[in-house]
Design goal:
By secondary structure, the chain is mainly α. It has three helices and no strands. Helix 1 crosses helix 2. The longest helix has 16 residues. It is globular. The chain starts with 6 loop residues before the first helix and ends in a 13-residue tail after the last helix.
């Protein structure tokens, strides 16, 4: 979704994918930007948010590397 890489952007995209996989039909809530995706109903939104806000999501998104500007040599 982003042109330039950032760790926070990577984690956001990862959690969006995670939330979409947990909902029936792969939807996203209306308040999250996601092109070409179905909009969740209120019940699906609750499932989506539970998946995104779950503490275990951090392990799923562990592949997101730090920003290069934050690395000190």
């Amino acid at each position: 979704m982003y042109r330039l890489y950032s760790q926070s952007g990577c984690i956001f995209e990862c959690k969006m994918r995670l939330g979409k996989t947990k909902t029936l039909g792969g939807c996203t809530p209306w308040f999250y930007p996601s092109p070409n995706t179905n909009m969740c109903d209120p019940w699906q939104t609750q499932i989506f948010l539970a998946a995104v806000l779950d503490g275990g999501a951090a392990k799923t998104c562990g592949h997101c590397l730090p920003d290069l500007s934050l690395i000190h040599i």
